[in-house]
Structures are given as structure tokens and as C-alpha cells.
Specification:
Protohaem_IX_farnesylTrfase, mainly alpha, Heme O synthase, heme biosynthesis, Tetracycline Repressor, domain 2
Length: 289
């Protein structure tokens, strides 16, 4: 999406490999930190560390090698900005998000922010800088992750309680708060397609199609809200698995080559929101808690 008329597939492959290394390091550090918690959960007790198939020392060595290699690949095969984003995301995931999981249910929202960074890395690798259009990808990933994970958190709430994690689903006996948050973030996806058109990232037809797709995604979220149950949460989770690849495929099919001119114009048009708008944005975000 950040490329010009032609996509440099070799550079894309290197960027993907470097991002893979960063992700491997972050996930490994997460499992080293949570080995005691993972041993208490059915979903994770058979991972290599809780079962003793891999020692913490070997896991840390693996994380060090993959993390260093991933950042180095991004630095030498992409650019310093992409490498910096990769290194920062390792630190944010393993150093902030992971410890926060046993402290506050706000970890879910921070985790969504972590998941929104890799698309920024891809744009930075392609364009050499971050432009407003990159925010379309980050927003899509951020808002998508919340209904995706909240459905999973409701389905696995017993497991999360056994592991000592703080999740919204554990302080929501009826499921209505969890479902309302999922539905709200599905609604936030509706204008993302129009933003892609306004920022010169996609052709005009994409806005309506993306809004329709978000509306369809919101239907199981609404059903979950009306009658919270494991079956409704499972349907929402499955819908989330379909939504993201469909959104991304549509975005690629509607791609407008990045000439940097549209991004420059949108930067000139962007203004800091007024006091009432800032208040609305803050209330919308805090409403998720």
C-alpha cells in the first residue's frame, strides 16, 4: 500500500522476514515471562516452556537471536525507521503489554496498539517514511483486534481467570460490557474505508464496500450484545477471521499507487481537533473500559 506504481517484491520479502524475527522475539519473551501462568491454563499448558521441552535459557537465546536478526534485517534491507519501529514494538509487547496482563484489563487496548504497528513497518519499508495513509492500515488493525480478542476473551474467561490475567470478560458477569465494546469497535471500522479514499490510498469505490463489510462484521457483534453466550462469541470470533483478509484484499484491489502527493495534500489538510472533538475522542476511547 505504501509502494508506487511497482512493488519491490524482494524488498517486501526482506521486510516480512525482518518483521517475522521481531514477532518471534516478542512472542518468545512473552512466554518466558508467563511460563508460570501458562502452566495453569488449558490453552497454554502444553507450550514448550511449561512442559519443560525448552528451558528459559534456550528461549531467551532464541529471542535474542531472532530479535537482533529481525531488527538488523529491517535496518540494512529496509531503513532505520522500519528497524526502529520493530525494536520499539518488541519492547512494547514484551516490556509493557505482557506485564500489564496481570495488572489491568487495559492490556487488551495496549495489545491492539502493538498489533497496529506492523502495518506501519510495512509502509515505512516501502515509502521510506510514515504518511497519513499508513494510518488507514493501523486503524483497521487496531479496531479489528478488539472484537476479535474480546470474543476470544469471553470464550476463554475461565482459563484467563485460572492464569491470573485481568480481562474485561472477568469483571463482566453478563457479557454485555464485553459485547458492547466489541460492537462499538466494529462501528469504528465503518469510516476507515472512507478515510482510505480521502487520504488517496484507495479508489472511491472502496469506501462504500469497506463500510458494508464492517456493517456485516457488526451483525454477529450485535447478536452477541443482545444475547451474550459462548455460541454468539464464537460466531463473532469466526467473523473476525473472515473480515480482515477480505478488507485487506479489497484494499489491495483498490490500491492507488503512492506518489506521496496525496499524502502531502492530506498533511496540509489535517488539523488538530477542536476541544469538543478532543473530548469526544477521549470519551470514545475511555468508554471501552
Amino acid at each position: 500500500m505504501g509502494s508506487g506504481d511497482a512493488v519491490d517484491w524482494r524488498s517486501l520479502a526482506w521486510a516480512s522476514l525482518g518483521t517475522f524475527g521481531c514477532a518471534a522475539a516478542a512472542n518468545t519473551l512473552n512466554q518466558v515471562y508467563e511460563v508460570a501462568n501458562d502452566a495453569l491454563m488449558k490453552r497454554t499448558m502444553r507450550r514448550p516452556l511449561p512442559t519443560g521441552r525448552v528451558s528459559p535459557r534456550h528461549a531467551l537465546a532464541f529471542a535474542s537471536v531472532t530479535g537482533a536478526a529481525g531488527v538488523a534485517i529491517l535496518y540494512y534491507k529496509a531503513n532505520a525507521l522500519t528497524a526502529g519501529l520493530g525494536a520499539a514494538n518488541i519492547a512494547l509487547y514484551a516490556g509493557v503489554y505482557t506485564p500489564l496482563k496481570v495488572v489491568s484489563c487495559a492490556n487488551t487496548w495496549l495489545g491492539a496498539a502493538v498489533g497496529a504497528v506492523p502495518p506501519l513497518m510495512g509502509w515505512a519499508a516501502a515509502a521510506g517514511t510514515l504518511e497519513p495513509g499508513a494510518g488507514v492500515l493501523a486503524a483497521a488493525l487496531y479496531f479489528w483486534q478488539l472484537p476479535h480478542f474480546l470474543a476470544l476473551a469471553w470464550l476463554c474467561r475461565g482459563d484467563y481467570a485460572a492464569g491470573g490475567y485481568r480481562m474485561l470478560s472477568l469483571v463482566d458477569a453478563t457479557g454485555r460490557r464485553t459485547a458492547a465494546c466489541a460492537l462499538r469497535n466494529c462501528a469504528y471500522l465503518v469510516p476507515v474505508g472512507f478515510a482510505a479514499v480521502w487520504l488517496g490510498v484507495a479508489t472511491p469505490t472502496f469506501g462504500g464496500g469497506a463500510a458494508l463489510l464492517a456493517g456485516v462484521f457488526a451483525l454477529p457483534a450485535a447478536a452477541f450484545y443482545q444475547a451474550p453466550s459462548n455460541a454468539a462469541a464464537r460466531t463473532l470470533f469466526r467473523a473476525s477471521l473472515a473480515y480482515l483478509p477480505l478488507f485487506m484484499a479489497g484494499l489491495i484491489a483498490s490500491r492507488v499507487p503512492n506518489t506521496h502527493e496525496a499524502s502531502a495534500r492530506s498533511r496540509l489538510q489535517l488539523r488538530l481537533p477542536g476541544a469538543s472533538q478532543r473530548s469526544y475522542l477521549v470519551r470514545s476511547f475511555l468508554g471501552d473500559f
